[in-house]
Amino acid sequence: MKNFIKILVLFCVFTHASFAQEVKLGKVSKEELKEKIYAKDSTADAAILYRNIKVSFVYVESKGFIIEREVHERIKIYNKSGFKHGTIVESLYQSNGTRESLTGLKAYTFNLVGDEIEKIKLKKSDIFKEETSKYYKKEKFTMPNLKEGSVIEYNYTVSSPFYSSFNEIILQYDIPIVQQEIKVEIPEYFSFKNMTKGYLAYDINRSSKAGSITFTNKNRSSSGYVTKTDFSSSKIDYKINVSKVQMKDVPALKEEVYVNSMNNYRAAVKYELQYVKFPNSSIENYSTTWESVVKKIYENDEFGKQLDIKKYYKENLSKVLAGKTSETEKLEAVFTHVQARMNWNNIYGYSTDEGVKKAYDLKTGNVADINLMLVSMLRAAGLNAKPVLVSTRSNGVPLFPTRYGFNYVVAVVNTNGKNIFLDATSKYNKPNMLPIRALNWAGRIVNEGGLSSSVSLLPDHKSTESVMMMASISNEGNLEGKIRRNCRDYVAYKFRINNSELAEDSYLEKLEEAYNGIEISEYSIDNKKIPNKPVVENFSFNLEDAAEILGDKMYVSPLLWFTQKENPFKTEKRDYPIDYGYPWEDKHMITIKIPEGYQVEFIPQSINVSVGDGLGNFKYSLSKTPIGLQISSSLSLNKAIISPQDYQGLKDFYTAVIEKQTEKVVLSKI
C-alpha cells in the first residue's frame, strides 16, 4: 500500500511538472521540426504542440477594469493541407466608439534547413485588417515561408472594455492539441456563471490569490501666492478568483455529415456575467432572461425604432398593393417587392447598418436593413407581422439567454392561425421557406414592447426530387433514353443557389459527370429562377457500357447512377443530432426496355423498410413488363433533425437501402 501511495505521489508530481514546464516563445527544438506525423492521430495535417490562454481583469485608472486575453500557441504543420492553419484570425468587437484591440503581436515560422533552424519573423505586410460590419472587424495574419514540417509560433494580447460577456474559450480545435493550459482570473467584484459545452471530459481547478489596485491622488493647496501640489497614493486589496483548465492529448473535433454546426459540439467554456458589486456600491445585475435580452434588443434604435419608419415606402407600397385584397395576395406582393428591390450585402446582424430608409434608397443593406423593412411594410399592409431573432447555423444554437447568441433576423406573419416565415435577403426562396443558413432549430418572435416567445424554425413539409426515366438497353449494353427531373421547395432552392448563374454548357458538363459520364442532348429547363415554382429539367441521354456483359448474361443496376453506393454514417457511435435541415424525399420511376433476344432471369425482391417511429421510409419495387422492367423507388426522411439515440437505427437503415439498391437485375439470352 505504501509503495502504491509513493507511485501515486510521484505520478501527480510528474503530471504537475509536465504542465509547469515553461514553453518559451521562439525556443523551438529540432525534434519538433523533424517530426513527420502526430503519433496519436496520423491523419492530422497539423497539431498544436502548446497552447496557453490567460484571461485577466486589469485595472486602468482612466478606464476602470478591462479584460486582457493573452494568447500563446505553437503549431506543427505536417503537410500542405495544414497550411490553412498558418492564417490566424481574431474578430474584434466595437460599439459607440469603444473597441477591442490586438497588441503585442510576435510571430515566427521555423524551418529546418540542413541541420540548422531557420527563424523567420512575421512582417507588418503579413498583417491585415478588415471591417466586416459596424460592430466587428477582423485582424488576421498569415505566417511567412510555410513548408511541410514547419513549426509556427505566435503570441499576442486582445484587450477589451466589454466585460459583461467575454468570448467563450475554445478547448478543442479541428486539429489535435498536445498540451494546453487555460487560466481565467476574475476579481471578486465580478460574479460570473461559467457554462461548459461539448463532449470532452475535463476539470476546472479553482483557487484564489491576492490582488490590489493603487490609486494616485493629487492635492493642491494655496498659501498666499504659492500653490503647492502634493501626490499621495492609496491601495485597495481584493481577492482574485482563479479558474484553471489543463489538458493533454486533446483529440481533434472531427467533421461529421449532417451537422448544423460543429461549433455547437466543440469543447468550450463560457463565462456569463451575473452581477457586479464594487465596495460601497449597490449590486448591478447583469443576469439575464430571454425577456430581458429581447427587450434590450427591441429598445435599440437600430431595431425597434426602424419598424415605425414608414414614410419612405408609402407611395411605392400603395402601387404594390393595388388590386390585392386577400392576406395571401398582400403578403406575396410585399415580399416579392422587397426581395426584388433589395440586394443583401452578405452582412449578418439583427441591428441595421444603414437604417431602413437609407437602405431602401440605396437598394442594398444587411439582414436587419432588409427584413425589418419587410416587417414594417407587411404591418402597413394590415398584416400581423413581427420580427424573429435567429442564430444562423454557422453561429450555433444559443444555449442560454444572451444578446450575442443571435446574429440574424427574419419576419413572420400569422395568417389563418399559421405562421409564415419570410426572409427577403435571398433571391431564390419564397414565403415560408427560409434560407438554409437560418434553419437553426428555434428563433424568438419579438412582440410589441420587447416581449418574446420561442418558435420552431424547422420545416414540416418534405422537399422532393422526382425523376422519371424511359430508357432502352442495346445488345452491346449501352443505354439511351429520356429523363424528366422535377425539384421542389428546398431541393429547387439548392439547385438555384448552386446553378442559376452557371452557363448552360458548364452546368451540363457538371451534370454529365454527376450522372456517371452520360452524354446529354436536347436539354431544356423551366423555372430556373422563379422561386415559387418547381425546377423542371428535360433531356435525352446515352451512356456506353451501362450494363455488364459476361457470356450470355447481362447485369444491370436498376437505379443506374441514382444508386446510393456508400453509407454516409461510418462512425460506431454519434454524440450529435443528425441535421438534414429539412425533411426530404427522392422518387424514381424508371422504365427500361431490354434488348431483343434477352429475357429477365432475375430481379431483386421488392422491399418496404422504415426507420424509427415514422422517421424515414424506403420503398423499392421491381416488376417485369412485356418489354422489360419497371422500377419504382422512394427514399424519404420525414424529420429535419434526428436525435443521436436513433443513430444506429438510421445507420442500419442506410445499410439496408444500399444493399437493396446495389442488387443487380440479370438478363440472359433466350
As for the CATH topology of the largest domain, it is: Immunoglobulin-like
Q: What is the name of the CATH class of the largest domain?
A: Mainly Beta
The count of strands amounts to 37
Taking Cα atoms only, what radius of gyration do you get, to the nearest Å?
31 Å
**Portion in strands:** 35-45%
Uncertain ranges: 1-18
In quaternary terms, these chains amount to single chain
Largest sheet: 8 strands, mixed
Describe the structure.
- The protein has 670 residues and is of the alpha+beta class.
- It folds into 3 domains: 2-285, Sandwich (Immunoglobulin-like); 291-456, C8orf32 fold (Roll); 463-669, Jelly Rolls, CATH 2.60.120.1130.
- Helix content is 17%, strand content 42%.
- It has 10 helices and 37 strands.
- The strands form 8 sheets. It has an 8-stranded mixed beta sheet with strand order 6-5-9-2-1-11-14-13.
- Helix 6 crosses helix 7.
- The radius of gyration is 31 Å and the shape is globular.
Brief synopsis:
By secondary structure, this protein is of the alpha+beta class. It has ten helices and 37 strands.
Give the topology:
Elements: H1 2-20, H2 30-34, E1 46-60, E2 64-77, E3 87-95, E4 98-99, E5 101-113, E6 116-121, E7 127-131, E8 136-142, E9 151-160, E10 169-170, E11 177-187, E12 190-197, E13 205-223, E14 226-250, E15 268-276, E16 284-285, H3 290-298, H4 314-320, H5 327-341, E17 343-344, H6 356-362, E18 364-365, H7 367-380, E19 385-390, E20 408-415, E21 418-422, E22 442-446, E23 452-456, E24 463-473, E25 479-487, H8 490-499, H9 504-514, E26 519-526, E27 535-543, E28 548-550, E29 553-556, E30 578-579, E31 584-593, E32 598-602, E33 607-611, E34 616-624, E35 628-637, E36 641-642, H10 647-661, E37 665-669
Parallel strand pairs: 1-11, 17-18, 24-31
Antiparallel strand pairs: 1-2, 2-9, 3-4, 3-8, 5-6, 5-9, 7-8, 10-15, 11-14, 12-15, 13-14, 15-16, 19-20, 19-22, 20-21, 22-23, 24-25, 25-27, 26-27, 28-29, 29-37, 30-36, 31-35, 32-37, 33-34, 34-35
Helix pairs in contact: 5-7, 6-7
